Amino acid sequence: MSLRLDTGDAGFAKAFDALVDDRRESDAGVSRDVAAIIADVRARGDLALAELTAKFDRFDLDAQGWSIGLQECAAAYAALEPGLREALDLAAARIRAFHASQKPEDKDSIDATGARLGSRWSAVEAAGVYVPGGRAAYPSSVLMNAIPAKVAGVDRLVMVTPTPGGSVNPLVLAAAHIAGVDEIWRVGGAQAVAALAYGTGRIQPVDVITGPGNAWVAEAKRQLYGVVGIDMVAGPSEIVVVADAQNDPALIAADLLSQAEHDPTSQSILFTDDTGFADAVAAAVEAHLPTLATQATARESWATYGAIITVRDLDEAMPLVNRLAAEHLELAVDDPDALFAKVRHAGSVFLGRMTPEAIGDYVAGPNHVLPTGRRARFASGLSVLDFMKRTSFLQLNEGALDAIGPAAVALAGAEGLPAHALSVALRLDR
Amino acid sequence: MSLRLDTGDAGFAKAFDALVDDRRESDAGVSRDVAAIIADVRARGDLALAELTAKFDRFDLDAQGWSIGLQECAAAYAALEPGLREALDLAAARIRAFHASQKPEDKDSIDATGARLGSRWSAVEAAGVYVPGGRAAYPSSVLMNAIPAKVAGVDRLVMVTPTPGGSVNPLVLAAAHIAGVDEIWRVGGAQAVAALAYGTGRIQPVDVITGPGNAWVAEAKRQLYGVVGIDMVAGPSEIVVVADAQNDPALIAADLLSQAEHDPTSQSILFTDDTGFADAVAAAVEAHLPTLATQATARESWATYGAIITVRDLDEAMPLVNRLAAEHLELAVDDPDALFAKVRHAGSVFLGRMTPEAIGDYVAGPNHVLPTGRRARFASGLSVLDFMKRTSFLQLNEGALDAIGPAAVALAGAEGLPAHALSVALRLDR
């Protein structure tokens, strides 16, 4: 049974604080092991990669092959059941269109002094996408990571994925084909992230690494932040649903379970203004659970981290929603814009009764890689910007230099940097 | 004497590789100490802060005061020498205008299926700016970090700065006044970064931390990345100058020295197509050096990391320039746009003969916090975006759900996530 709170309860503030502060992310204590793996791959390259892959994935890279060919991906795509192929194609087309609209504009203008100022965006040359092996190998995740990179203009898109015992997921290969991945290497774990960051004999280094992974992969990305760019540190998935009593409890229950089934540490929270509806959703969750192949995971998540919070009215929920700064937020009401105007922190928002969060996981277009663990307070979902960088530029003519140069000389002098002052003063004295 | 290379030399490729790979950033080995300080501040809050500040800064927070009042900043501003006050005001106005032009636009549109899609930007609630004490306490750095935060719309802007032995830099306080800093705490080092990230009894936590610092500060930010947002990991400053023989060697020499004087590990590199000009710049560097109060630092940097590279023509320099991906790049030629079109990786570019890099450090408008150590391959200078985040949103009507919902059901089924499929299928069966 999940947590039940009411904002009118005497102990509500304290109980809600505990909910907000609850860290579902374990300090896995892998930091030292990951540092050793990174150092090993950096020093010994392919040799270290082969040894670590034999050890962790029971896979002999030299004997069984280091990479997966693009023709194998094309074949996996061609062999897809037609309905699934169309679904992946539709998802890819919509993701591509949404991310194309994110491409930033260059700026180039001249101000009143005659100074030309601007900024120019360009793509990174190479990006790496980590794709987990086994159960969590999701083709949707390949599309969500790889398509923004290609839309950004990345020249070389490298996928790494462990193939434990040699197994590959044909859906993942098909998605790599659709997304335009350029290389695929059969490596995983912290060693794969290290290989992408520093390069090895076989694998050329990349500039940015994205994609989900286990605690070792996440820690490797964290440790290599600065050597390469990475996407935001990711934790367990979460959803907050704000719903009035006009909703069908069975639908809202399914929405809550769609996060709970991801992982035992996932979190689903419902805010509603109607106690009877709260009871009905709780009952609907119990009714759905036995029908799900993911029952064990979903039940554990819901029992451990799930919560239903009753509020006097839905406006009262909104400051609480902002404190949770959830990855996913559903506003299942007739006029979602009124509530949405009060949302300051959320990864992605699903408006109205006909917008289940799962649509956003697959086919809507916006990215499903979103900030978790209250990081929506400062972080954004994955976008083309993660694969691009901005170069600012400046051009002065003599008039502009005369207008603003003396101030630079004064400030450089005050900061005790005489060569800075000299480089401007010599030009003023022309 | 700095390094001299010519692209025609037999050993050029190898020597240039070494220049590119040369890591001027020391692994300072402070990682464990910083982790201990962070854990201490997180556990003991103000008590730990007071002890660490007494130890490292010889400053008694409880007896001498934890914070610097805003009225003290206003007084420092009022007491500025008028020329300096005008220079700071001009710099602030130009920085504010440039960063205001960076504010991203929200998107909200409806596609062919009737699906509403968009994204909305918002500022983080609180940001922290680290300002070093002592020699490297630069008012320009306060402006460059604080103004973008305020332009972004940050509600609460917190400055932390160590005041060793009680000393404060009035220029820094004046800059804090101009920039609109809301709180100033007399703490520094890894302990100040930890206090900003986790909060203490006195200091409320922030969402993003930016600003330069020593190896301990940089490591603390790196370790706390994910708990808060941070700006890019920063290393020693650097400049690459591409100049033909039509330049005055004394000007180009001053430009090279304006980076060299920052730190013994700073780097200045000149590309030119004229050996005589190369010799003249080298001689001008030697002539300038004895005139500079920063001579010792500049001489050590130039001797250790400086380089002059002669090329057959300036176009030949451009792929080499891109490999260096420098923080600052000057294109000192008559037609800089032709060369600029070939620049893919650079933090900030200074076009033409009248645009010394130092102008950009102070008064031009673009940010002087820029990616170093080849990170311009994947990172950008500080901007309003570092203090904002994007929330994507989606709203389906029944028609849009019918159009794209079945594909989501198919993909959820293929990924083994039945509650995802259920949440969509129940709405399709309405």
Automatic annotation (TrEMBL), chains A, B:
InterPro entries (alphabetical): Ald_DH/histidinol_DH, Histidinol_DH_CS, Histidinol_DH_monofunct, Hstdl_DH
Entry keyword Zinc: yes
The protein's required cofactors: Zn(2+)
Entry's Gene Ontology BP terms: L-histidine biosynthetic process
HAMAP family from the UniProt entry: HisD
UniProt-recorded name of the protein: Histidinol dehydrogenase
Catalytic residues of the enzyme: E327 (proton acceptor), H328 (proton acceptor)
Function of the protein: Catalyzes the sequential NAD-dependent oxidations of L-histidinol to L-histidinaldehyde and then to L-histidine.
Binding-site residues for Zn(2+), renumbered to this chain: Q259, H262, D361, H420
Record note on cofactor: Binds 1 zinc ion per subunit.
This protein's GO CC annotations: cytosol
Enzyme Commission number, as recorded: 1.1.1.23
Family named by the database record: Belongs to the histidinol dehydrogenase family.
Keyword terms of this UniProt record: Amino-acid biosynthesis, Histidine biosynthesis, Metal-binding, NAD, Oxidoreductase, Zinc
Gene Ontology MF terms: histidinol dehydrogenase activity; NAD binding; zinc ion binding
Residues the record lists as binding substrate: S237, Q259, H262, H328, D361, E415, H420
Pathway annotation: Amino-acid biosynthesis; L-histidine biosynthesis; L-histidine from 5-phospho-alpha-D-ribose 1-diphosphate: step 9/9
Organism: Sphingomonas lacunae
